[in-house]
Hints:
The longest helix is centred in the C-terminal third of the chain and has 28 residues, at 164-191. Helix content is 75%, strand content 0%. The protein is mostly helical and 192 residues long. α2 packs antiparallel against α3 (40-57), α7 (125-133) crosses α10 (164-191) and α8 packs across α10 (164-191). The chain has ten helices and no strands. The model is unreliable at 88-98 and 107-122 (pLDDT under 50).
Amino acid sequence: MAESTIIRKLKGGSREALALLWQDHSANVLNLAFRFMKDRDQAEDILMDVFVQVPKAIQSFQGNSTLGTWLFKLTVNACLMKLRATKRHGELEEEHIDIIIEDALGKTGDTDRDKVQNEAEHFDPELLEMGLSQLPAETRSMLWLKDSEDLDIKDLSEIYKTPEGTIKARLSRARHYIKDFIKERISHAKQA
């Protein structure tokens, strides 16, 4: 069924359309919620909260994005509200550490690989988690969605209701902060 048809049917209260939306997007919503919360039960609660919101929230859906991006927006908002309420910071999943290590230590050509490999060998994933934990939850989630989920700046701007320039600046500052944090810790480790 075409996305425009699903949207129209959702706005009309169709349970079939809601079931299709669940079938197509519930795994992505659960995955994103889990990455934020680092707790399966909380992620499942957020999944349910998001899909309970859909029938009412779809009425204000303008169609400026895909349903997937719109569901990411609902999920991010639900996660951030939960994080703010519990003041709990999520941790980074190990499978995405390499992406951020590469960003932190710099993308390289073959000539610099040995240097980066040497730095990466001294890299402790806990450093990354420590650095990320010092970022505001919203900035941390932006970084994760951009680097791990490969969302573009326009989608992030829509999700966070923030101008694209502000998103770019926050991502840049976050990357620089993490890069400096990691390099400083690696330098201290080498001196010890």
